[in-house]
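step: validate -> pass
step: tokenize input -> pass
step: predict -> running
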Amino acid sequence: MVKSSKGSRLSHVAAGALAAAIGAHGAAFAQTSESEEVVVTALKRETTLIETPAAITAISGDELAARQITSIESLAAAAPNLVVGQASGVSWVSVRGIGIGSTSGGIEGSVALHLDGAYLAQAASLDALMFDVSSVEVLRGPQGTLYGRNATGGTVNFISNRPTQETDIRVAALTGAFERTRLEGVVSGGVSENVALRAAVMWERQDEGYGENVYLRQTFGNREAHGGRLSGRFDLTDTLRVDASVFRFWDWTDGIQLTRLNPFNATARANNPIFNTAAPRPSDPRDINAESQADAERVLEGGNITVNWDFTPNLALRSITSYTRVDYSNLGADGDGTELPMVHSDRIEDTAAWQQEFNLIFRAFDSRLEGLVGVYYNDERLSLEGHNRWLAANPQGFVNVAGQVVPAGTDVVGFLQQDTTSSAVFADVTFALTDNWSIYAGARQSRDERDIVQTTGLAGLPGNVGLAACNARRFANDWDSTTGKIGVAFTGSLGNLYLQWAEGFKAGGFNAYNCGDAYEPEEVISVEAGYKVQAFGDRLRFAASVFHYDYTNLQVSQIVNLQQRIENAAAATITGAEFETFLRASDLFSVDLNIALLDATYDRYTDLDPLRPALGFQSLAGNRLNRAPEYTVNLGLTFSAPISDGRLTLRGEVFHSDDVYFRQFNQPQDKQDAYTTYNLFATWDTGGPVSIRAFGRNITDEDILLGVFSAGTIFDRWAIYAPPRTWGVELRAEF
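step: predict -> pass
step: emit ->
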């Protein structure tokens, strides 16, 4: 196994920092503006954040609103070692360097996403999950025991606001840069002694995009969205409660499209001489030259029923039943990054999944033993249709696709019907040996089965002969896994410590656009130590963790000839540390600081770069993992003072990230150089029902890459950028 010397140094630095932290008086951390005891559900039962032996960041709904975290991209700086983004209508989340930056549906991430306890199979509409939430919990590290599949990197839990017996009416209106308007409304209250309902709706429109299509002389990235959630809480008896919800969110944009990062090279021009006539790449990195605009729609809808039945004070049953459906289409996207009539891409997806989970939660021996046992079942149906249409209008008469000549008018197609079933039994327990020492352990036995019917090849040729190799062919595979964890925790007046060993597993699968092309499951073994404490009347909170991962068959994505595929890196090692601090220095002033250190490298991995095929398969040992900066720092300063009957709160944020690579080949063009961004927020609570908020994000207008993807067809790179400088003013009222 190849180890980098930098990783060894990082281990010593992290260990030293943790030792120093243990010697200090710190505090358990959560993203809240007030010092308070934070309760989390990370262990599938309510525990306080400080006593939970795991690396968790909990961000309250009020904090999300105050910092205008309404999109998946804006969540990134809220927790250490969290990298998020979105491309071609697919959201991705990476934790501690683990996550798949996919631009194609049907590819499951390595960070599990849950809404009110229910697993979300496809992450096509994550922005909708940021609406009317009580909190967001980011769990870092493999969660193979309690959460199982697709949680090798961690888990993000979105917890929506529940109905209240007290009447709660909220409205908000926002206006901002790029002709953005957003309206929200919430009504909650009891309709009887035992029944409470909540209705939440939102509407948003952005009439000016972040980039301009220079050829068509119009902006792209305009957006419209609307949706809502209706939920109910039914206290059937003193010991039986039912929570139910239904939701539907829709959004549309005219520009889910990547921008061309580099000029065409000599090979691309030689293969397709028509590129010599293309207009120069626009100077603004967010602008494009394209003869067509994409038309993209997404729908996320579903429902959830959670039943909590307390048999005795020490024994309870929870049932979670959910159904989710994601429909997505992106039609007419320009596939060559020029104004030339070369290729248009279409993608249509439909995913429907239902799941059932039962948890039996117990306490025994005067509450010295507590835990749960559970069973889980998930059934998912995915339908995917993709087209790369090489246009007959192409005056060149052909397209040279990575050295293969394809006649103009040809359609490279991919059809996939995929059925996935997952089942598991699991247990997680904690036993208090003394008042200070406890041990905890867990185990999960899982089975994943995947069955596909696949058609790939060329259409538009006489007799469709190009489809013969893979025309409605069936493939199937299944994987069994046993994952576990064991740890020891100490709770005392000077803080809480934990040390644990854990495993994670992510099932394999099939690449949608390559006939029968399968990839292997990934597995991880993790060792982690952490420290948390609160002190000085809860004015100071601190949390730290150090960790080391050994990965086998890490799943890595790249685009080959316009098609996304997953392959396996034989081995990878990740070592790092995280520090989170909140200090209320006075009644007026507070500071929060997150620091993340990460050394994430491939140990054994050979791969062919579609942008440099002449080099053949290269050893990538020692290269850094994608979306894994060596360090990030997020500093927040908050000043809050009473004014008349109200309060004025001012906040500034500074986020700094080291270099980030987006392709495993670690070429200079594959990365975002180190950068710093600044955000400003102001909130005036009038003392009555009305408050006014203003914000500016990325106020220095940095051009920041969120992703870089290969485009081997034209030996080029595609890119997606974070939003430029944005601002807004919001008026809120609560009754």
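step: describe -> The longest strand covers residues 437-459.
step: cleanup -> pass
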